[in-house]
Amino acid sequence: MTLGGIAGLVAALAFAFLVVRLASLVGKAGRILDETAASVRETSDNIQPTLKSLTDTIGLTNDQLTRVDAITSSVSTMTTNASALTSVAAATVGSPLIKVAAYSYGVRTAIKGLKKVQK
Question: pTM higher than 0.70, yes or no?
Fold first, then answer.
């Protein structure tokens, strides 16, 4: 065997080693892709019920918000009515009560003044 034959044999062995290593890497990449496909398939199978549940929850939340909106409208109407009633009560009862209080204060002050003068 000559020196060129030995060099060719070493080159052939190195090439064979590289081919074996690349084949094992391609095999590992294939297994990784298979696992990824299985994982994606499982995830997509689990997402369907989750999305349905989420859709149902959003629908129920929308119904509740509609009810809250109706309640808020009713409370707003009640607040407006109470404010109007308070204004009417203040105008009807408040003005005469203020006049009566002012008159009674004037009478008390006058009586006290008369008592001081008589002493």
Answer: no
